[in-house]
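Researcher: I'm preparing a figure for a lab meeting and need a structural model of a single chain. I don't have an experimental structure, so a prediction will have to do for now. The sequence is pasted below. Please return the structure as tokens so I can convert it later.
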Amino acid sequence: MMRGIDVRRCNAEKNYAGELVFEFAGEEELLDIPFVAFSSPVEAKLHYEILEDDSVEVRGTVSFSLKGECSRCLKMTERRFTGEAEGYFVPRGAKGAEEDYSYSNGVIDLGEFLRDAVLFAMPARLTCSDGCTAPDYKAD
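Model: Understood. Here is the structure written out token by token.
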């Protein structure tokens, strides 16, 4: 499983773009929905491009399944979610890079980027279907 990009190696091989496809375990601490867990590994399908200044653009998708109780009717359910993943990586210490991901020693660790992508793809709640008919309960 490749969870990083060796920018120095890619530059030496004149391989300035590529595809990464791999799976990894979803981190349970990213889940903020009661009685729900990851039911499959997270699948990452990414494309990277190394630019002339050694900054790297990474784009793609992350997909995963969640299983647990419907947040509305409490039936057991399992649903698949897919989210877009976009990141811009710059060498550590580069000017104006405060809001970008950074890397050092010529190697990009995709860990933080992947956690962010999964977190942004995460639903606010798990429902058994888009049209779950359980009533919403309101406090009096």
